[in-house]
Specification:
Length: 764
């Protein structure tokens, strides 16, 4: 069969025990067996460390995709890096984020199997020799890539795929082959230099930091993986007819490589290098094979996130790849020049090499020219990709560009994390929805069924009580379980506008203070997420949230009508607890900035209502459920563009809206930081004078929309009916649907629903 290779620098897997039991259909049996040993399975599950080998959406998407690919019976492999330290653990100290190393392998990892027999060499540095026999890359430094395999079980179909993660090992002669003066001890200690490659995950979400170690990580995973892919292609009896199997004609029919963002973009020049330099394939033929094999998924339109590597760094680290990129770029620009004679500016815009004070390689441009398919991750994002980010490329090859709206696996994000809701649903429509989420549509028949309305509300209340107990036990915070659980959990970033949420919390607080006897809908506002360690503004936002909480939560006038809680160390295993308990999901990025979002989908399928902008997949969620069943507010992409043209003036909103002015003045004057009144002046200064994400422009519409949320929450029956509608319309957002589209429209394979016979039965 055609093999699918999903290349990603991140796989945000979370815990594996419960997921394995669910997919193998063993959960009840294990539960019972453990219970009979006098143990509690849930207590046992809490001991497992998260595999936190990702930052957020991009890494978690890769994990959901692995689950769906196995469930759909695809011959798919996930390839990445076995980081010794994953995403840092977040501690909150005095209201500030403090990072500590995530030593997740300290007690070993029972799910992985080291495969030293498949260890492979990866080359760095050196120089290029052009000889009559061809090009040679020589005098390189070698690092060994040791594979570790983790099984990926499909849902009750006896399929088990593999996630192979590479770990860096120094060769035994490392730094000893140097005609060295015999400092043997120093040489052995220097092995760490090589092994640092797989030491730690870079903790940036949607931000590019051009560090040499990161480029080494990117090439390390690519070089090891491509050797593995080609070994498997050559040894496959279907690979080719000729005895030595040097024929690569059939390669794209047998191999599909999906690039998860530009991080594995070096696959393109590396495959060219192997085909041309090693396998002696003709250049043009090699280019055709490479393009037919690779496909690229774009994950962001934020310019600061795009990878642009200095040419000087490449020259040193990967000299042959630089030559290949130059040659590919020349070929590409020749074609553009022929089609648009005299359009020099177009050549500049479309080049893979950016000229300037520091020449850089634009990895996104490399991916676009080297792939047969380029996709965005939600319809609105794919449109932006075509009409702005890669506009010139779209004009050149419109057939290359596609949309593949993201999804989430219903196994982890419904069955595993919300068994109560899954049971209530299965009672009404059977269990088939677990592998065909579109069947949730059948719930529309029960929208007025009193018993069903009651059951759905009851499950939500139980989840809220359970989460409230967890919060009290872990963090000693008491919350009101009958309050609205208003949740925004995601990485902390200016574009995600946690600050808008803060302004609403302050506004609510000021309204309660000014009329304490009035009746208010009680809320518990929970905000969670990690800030990149070097992102100053994101860290200030966390400090602001904790400071607001400090004031509000200790004000006797407020009582338990309003609480602001910062959820410490938000990660996959915490998401599995908080999402089923949420009433309101906040998805409030500036329109045109959140490529898709996937948390939005998890909340929808778990019975929370969404307050959000028309951004990312929110647009399609509103389309599926009906816009009147979400709380949509604020500027659309067109409005944002119009405001950019006329110039955004934050002060205008500050002058015009008294509640906004009061909130900003309180933040600025030190009302929330009495010990350090100037604490938040950077935040206020940003909001007033250089806010790229236009928080104030959506403030009025947001506050008004939150008023509508309050109104509906006071009518529990109508609220729950809207919840049921949302759940019933969430079927599109299964990663099974997403992967079916990738398989058919990019990889050219048909998913199979057939269950293969279990290993204990003889095969036909």
């Amino acid at each position: 069969p055609q093999r699918i290779y999903y290349l990603s620098l991140e796989f945000y897997m979370g815990r594996t025990l419960q997921n394995t039991m669910v997919n193998l259909g063993l959960q009840n049996a294990c539960d019972e067996a453990i219970y009979q040993l006098g143990l509690d399975l849930e207590e046992l599950e809490e001991i497992e460390e998260d595999a936190g080998l990702g930052n957020g959406g991009l890494g978690r998407l890769a994990a959901c995709f692995l689950d769906s690919m196995a469930t759909l019976g695809l011959a798919a492999y996930g390839y990445g890096i076995r980081y010794e330290f994953g995403i840092f653990n977040q501690k909150i100290v005095d209201g500030w984020q403090v990072e500590e190393a995530d030593d997740w392998l300290r007690y070993g990892n029972p799910w992985e199997k080291a495969r030293p027999e498949y260890m492979l060499p990866v080359h760095f540095y050196g120089r290029v020799d052009h000889t009559p026999e061809g090009v040679k890359w020589i005098d390189t430094q070698v690092v060994l890539a040791m594979p570790y395999d983790t099984p990926v079980p499909g849902y009750k179909n006896n399929t088990v795929n593999t996630m192979r993660l590479w770990s860096a090992k120094a060769p035994n002669d490392f730094n000893l082959q140097e005609f060295n003066v015999g400092d043997y001890i120093e040489a052995v200690l220097d092995r760490n230099l090589a092994e640092n490659i797989s030491r730690v995950l870079y903790p940036n979400d949607n931000f590019f930091e051009g560090k040499e170690l990161r480029l080494k990580q990117e090439y390390f995973v690519v070089a090891a993986t491509l050797q593995d892919i080609i070994r498997r292609f050559k040894s496959s009896k279907f690979g080719c007819r000729d005895p030595v199997r040097t024929c690569f004609e059939t390669f794209p029919d047998k191999v599909a490589i999906q690039l998860n963002d530009t991080h594995p973009a070096l696959s393109i020049p590396e495959l060219m290098r192997i085909l041309v330099d090693v396998e002696k394939v003709d250049w043009d033929k090699a280019w055709e094979i490479t393009k037919r094999t690779c496909a690229y998924t774009n994950h962001t339109v934020l310019p600061e996130a795009l990878e642009r590597w200095p040419v000087s760094m490449f020259e040193k680290l990967l000299p042959r790849h630089l030559e290949i990129i130059y040659a590919l770029n020349q070929m590409h620009l020749d074609r553009v020049a022929a089609l648009y004679p005299g359009d020099i500016d177009r050549l500049r815009r479309m080049s893979v090499i950016e000229e300037g004070d520091c020449k850089r390689i634009n990895m996104a441009h490399l991916c676009v020219i080297g792939s047969h398919a380029v996709n965005g991750v939600a319809r609105i994002h794919s449109d932006i990709v075509k009409n702005s980010v890669f506009k010139d490329f779209y004009e050149l090859e419109p057939e290359k560009f596609q949309n593949k709206t993201n999804g989430i696996t219903p196994r982890r994000w419904l069955l595993l994390c919300n068994p109560g809701l899954a049971d209530v649903i299965a009672e009404k429509i059977g269990e088939d929805f677990i592998t065909d989420l579109s069947q949730l549509k059948k719930l529309l028949d029960f929208i007025n069924n009193e018993a069903f309305i009651r059951d759905v509300a009851k499950v939500k209340q139980e989840n809220k009580l359970k989460f409230a107990a967890y919060l009290e036990e872990q963090y000693k915070v008491k919350i009101n379980p009958s309050s609205m659980f208003d949740v925004q959990v995601k990485r902390i970033h200016e574009y995600k506008r946690q600050l808008l949420n803060c302004l609403h919390a302050i506004t609510l607080y000021n309204r309660i203070r000014s009329d304490p006897s009035k009746s208010f809908v009680p809320r518990t506002i929970m905000i969670g997420g990690k800030a990149a360690p070097g992102y100053h503004m994101a860290k200030m936002i966390i400090k602001l949230i904790t400071s607001i909480g400090e004031v509000i939560n200790n004000d006797p006038y407020v009582g338990d009508r309003l609480k602001v809680i910062f959820l410490e160390n938000y990660r996959v295993s915490l998401a599995e607890k908080v999402i089923p308990a949420a009433d309101l999901s906040q998805q409030i990025s500036t329109a045109g900035t959140e490529a898709s979002g996937t948390g939005n989908m998890k909340f929808m399928v778990n019975g929370a209502l969404t307050i959000g902008t028309m951004d990312g997949a929110n647009v399609e969620m509103a389309e599926e459920a009906g816009e009147e069943n979400l709380f949509i507010f604020g500027m659309r992409v067109e409005d944002v563009e119009a405001l950019d043209r006329q110039g955004y003036n934050a002060r205008e909103y500050y002058e015009r809206l008294p509640e906004l002015r009061q909130a900003i003045d309180q933040i600025n004057s030190g009302f929330f930081s009495p010990r350090d009144p100037g604490c938040f002046r950077d935040v206020v200064n940003m909001l007033m004078y250089h806010d790229r994400f236009k928080v104030f422009a959506d403030y009025e519409a947001y506050i008004k929309c939150q008023g509508q949320v309050d109104q509906l929450f006071m009518d529990p029956r109508e609220w729950t009916k809207k919840v049921i509608r949302n759940i019933a319309c969430s079927g599109k957002f299964s990663s099974d649907r997403t992967i079916m589209e990738y398989a058919r429209e990019i990889w050219g394979v048909e998913p199979s629903a057939t269950k293969i016979p279990p290993p204990n039965l003889p095969r036909d």
